[in-house]
Write a structure and sequence with these properties.
The complex is a heterodimer of chains A (301) and B (413).
Chain A (H helix, E strand, L loop, with lengths): L1 H41 L16 H8 L1 H32 L6 H13 L2 H11 L6 H8 L15 H26 L3 H9 L4 H29 L3 H6 L7 H4 L2 H11 L3 H29 L5
Helix pairs in contact in A: 1-13, 2-13, 3-7, 3-9, 4-7, 7-9, 9-13, 12-13
Chain B lengths: L1 H23 L2 E7 L5 H14 L3 E7 L2 H13 L6 E4 L3 H6 L7 H6 L9 H6 L1 E2 L2 E2 L1 E3 L5 E6 H6 L11 H14 L5 E5 L7 H7 L17 H15 L6 H6 L2 H6 L3 E7 L3 H5 L7 E4 L11 E2 L3 E4 L6 H11 L2 H9 L24 H9 L1 E2 L6 H16 L5 H17 L3
Parallel strand pairs in B: 1-2, 1-3, 8-9, 11-13
Antiparallel strand pairs in B: 3-12, 4-5, 6-12, 7-9, 7-10
Helix pairs in contact in B: 2-15, 9-10, 17-18
Classes of the chains: A mainly alpha (301), B alpha/beta (413).
Chain lengths: 301, 413
């Protein structure tokens, strides 16, 4: 009797558990899992504005691999990753360590550091758009004051737009990661540092041999999410580079290319193929990271 | 007493059954638009329409521009699109998909005078002789100039009938005397306020009249880009670095520019400038062929699957009619293409002379389009920006546009 009672109880618990995750799971199923499958199917059709799309097999992918725009936006996207990810990781580790030292007013600094993460991307972009303005921007004014007389066309010179966008991305992207790393830092037991100090290790050595290894799981998380975020870079470009200006092609990422094709030229099937290509790219890079993490990520047992 | 109660109950019962029946006689027309700034005026227009047509209830559906077309397309597929909606340069695409109701039969039946509209705008909504939309309004491109700057430097003000060379000569005189950071000429390098005017002005074309040929292999087309680049090279117009970050209109408004090429859609803003009394307004200078202006504008179209087409037509006719045009003109949201209503628009300006817009409209041509305009226009804009920033020569750029645009047009046939 007792056993049966337990069983029934457990089944009830299981059901309750499912019921509780249901709202999230249903949302996930409809808006992510179903949409994901739908996108893959769409990429095999000539879906455009209306009418029933025809199945066209791999035609969209053939077109994609022949399109100069695809290679250019792929190259730009990889450049964004190469520039932004190391900077985001470095700055966020540095900022987190500094914010963890317990200087006076830490609370204020932490709040300030977190501000960009709670600011709308549109607000960040609009602020930078003015800072970077060629004729009236504060940054060029600063450069001029420093004696550099020729202003830089941050948002329209094809040679520099990619760096300008990266700069804004790093500025806006560091802050959330700082919070993740701060949490990681706080999880490191004080006793390690005490032991190290007794053994005569200075703060640099403590950082190198205690902080970094014990923080590596958090750094790994920061790296994986940063890479995914940068691969999907869209809003900053969309907001600070004027559409179809001289800076457009030099700053175009795969996500903006997707947006242009799917929502401005209404080529939804082709757009879906771009999205699938981006997905495969991110998947491969993330798998590679998971593989390589064994070499450098240290999980504290 | 009992009888009275029975009677009362019976009345109530009859009314309870009858009222929904009465209500059901009222037909509902849905009307989609994208501009929330214009919606308050349209709400008033709709209220007035419903007053005059008690049998029709209009439901206004506002969808922001960024989602308007995606939503319209999806709704068309599901046969749930609005009955009446705003239509723009994408018209040929919707006509080709056979989702728009031809309006000729209705126009004929009501003997609607189509000559009451500016001809170019009226004809813009005709595809192969069939009318698919009635004009909402229009916008034109012309030159605004700051008289005070001309007077300050003792340079003669531009006069109607001027040529491109006249303009360059004036600009060079200004350039000699102007301070650093002051520009003789500014423009915005988007198609409508700049090169879509210059291309036909210099004898080229963007798309042939039958919409089958791209005109970027034309000498005039290439030359028009060269003329704009020459302005930059001569230093009479700031280069792309300045113009792509700061709007030409903003430079003009901060009194740093003498001549501005700009659309009528910014006129209201310019009229409110502190120095508005010094702003002169004239048609563009003549290039080799003409000083033609590209005209923009919207129309009201009907869904071919509209529930109650008679009611939808009544709404369209009203929206494009005198009263609605008057309210839009006085509400400062659109410049009437209905000639009789243009008188209501001009008084909006305290300083500018709005008659120039109507004059320019008479000789204008409508914004170039075709079935797949959404595919080729981005190509034109993308490459044009590269030409105007000097990263590609006008010859190479135009060749590149031609090579991409012509196959798109060919695939429409």
């Amino acid at each position: 009797m007792r056993i049966r009672h337990d069983k029934r109880n457990r089944r009830g618990e299981t059901l309750a558990g499912y019921a509780m995750i249901a709202p999230l799971f249903i949302g996930l199923a409809v808006f992510y899992i179903f949409a994901f499958g739908q996108n893959i199917y769409d990429s095999l059709t000539n879906k455009s504005s209306f009418g029933v799309p025809d199945f066209v097999g791999l035609a969209n992918y053939v077109k994609l691999f022949k399109a100069p725009y695809f290679y250019q936006s792929l190259q730009n996207t990889l450049m964004y990753v190469l520039i932004c990810v190391p900077l985001v990781v470095t700055f966020s580790v540095l900022a987190a360590v500094l914010l963890n030292t317990g200087i006076r007013g830490t609370g204020v600094y932490r709040t300030l550091a977190f501000l960009p993460a709670v600011t709308l991307p549109a607000a960040i972009a609009l602020m930078w758009k003015w800072l970077l303005n060629y004729e009236f921007g504060l940054i060029n004014a600063g450069l001029n004051a420093l004696g550099i007389s020729s202003s830089v066309a941050w948002l329209s010179d094809p040679k520099v737009v990619l760096f300008a966008v990266s700069m804004v991305f790093v500025w806006g992207g560091v802050s959330y990661q700082v919070i993740v790393l701060l949490a990681g830092l706080q999880g490191i037991s004080r006793s390690y540092y005490e032991a190290a100090r007794i053994d005569g290790a200075g703060s640099l050595k403590q950082f190198r041999y205690i902080t970094l290894p014990l923080l590596s799981p958090s750094i790994f998380f920061v790296m994986v999410t940063s890479i995914i975020n940068v691969f999907q870079i869209f809003d900053i470009i969309y907001l600070i580079i004027p559409q179809y200006s001289s800076g457009t092609s030099a700053s175009r990422s795969l996500a903006t290319y997707f947006f242009e094709e799917a929502f401005m030229k209404f080529q939804k099937g082709y757009g879906a193929a771009i999205a699938v290509a981006l997905f495969v790219l991110i998947l491969l890079v993330t798998l590679a990271q998971l593989w390589f993490q064994k070499r450098w990520v240290h999980y504290d047992e | 007493m009992k009888r009275f109660v029975t009677l009362l109950l019976a009345t109530v019962l009859v009314m309870a059954f009858a009222l929904p029946a009465l209500a059901a006689e009222k037909t509902t027309v849905t009307f989609a638009l994208w501009d929330e700034n214009q919606k308050p005026v349209f709400d008033e227009i709709i209220a007035k329409f419903q007053e005059e047509n008690p049998g029709i209830a209009v439901e206004v559906q506002l969808t922001p521009w960024s989602q308007y077309w995606t939503k319209l397309d999806a709704a068309m597929g599901a046969e749930k699109a609005a009955d009446v909606f705003w239509m723009n340069t994408y018209l040929p695409k919707y006509v080709a998909a056979k989702v728009l109701e031809p309006l000729d039969a209705y126009i004929e039946k009501d003997a609607l005078d189509m000559d009451a509209y500016v001809a170019v705008v009226r004809d813009a909504y005709k595809i192969d002789g069939t009318t698919y939309a009635l004009p909402k309004g229009m916008d034109t491109v012309q030159v605004f100039f700051n008289k005070a700057i001309f007077d300050k430097y003792g340079v003669e003000q531009p006069k109607d009938g001027w040529t491109w060379d006249d303009m360059v000569a004036l600009a060079k005189q200004l350039k000699e005397k102007a301070a650093d950071g002051e520009y003789p000429i500014v423009m915005e390098l988007d198609p409508q306020p700049s090169y879509f005017n210059f291309i036909p002005q210099d004898g080229g074309f963007i798309i042939s009249e039958d919409r089958s040929k791209a005109g970027f292999d034309q000498e005039g087309t290439v030359n028009s880009y060269k003329k704009v680049l020459t302005l930059m090279d001569d230093g009479v117009m700031p280069d792309y670095k300045v113009l792509s970050d700061t709007k030409g209109t903003d430079l003009f408004l901060s009194q740093k520019a003498a001549i501005l090429f700009m659309g009528s859609w910014k006129a209201m803003l310019l009229d409110e400038a502190s120095f508005a009394k010094d702003i002169g307004l004239i048609p563009m200078p003549k290039m080799d062929a003409s000083n033609i202006s590209v005209l923009g504008g919207l129309g009201f179209a009907m869904n071919a699957n509209a529930q109650d087409k008679e009611a939808a037509w009544k709404l369209i006719k009203y929206l494009a009619g005198e009263e609605s045009n008057k309210m839009q003109a006085e509400g400062k949201i659109d410049m009437p293409a209905l000639i009789s209503a243009q008188q209501y628009y001009a008084p909006n300006f305290k300083n500018l002379d709005a008659s120039v817009f109507f004059k320019v409209a008479e000789t204008g041509y409508f914004f170039p389009t075709s079935q797949k305009v959404a595919e080729w226009l981005p190509v034109v804009m993308d490459v044009s920006s590269q030409i105007l920033s000097g990263s590609m020569s006008p010859e190479d750029g135009c060749k590149m546009i031609q090579e991409q645009m012509q196959p798109i047009l060919d695939s429409e046939q």
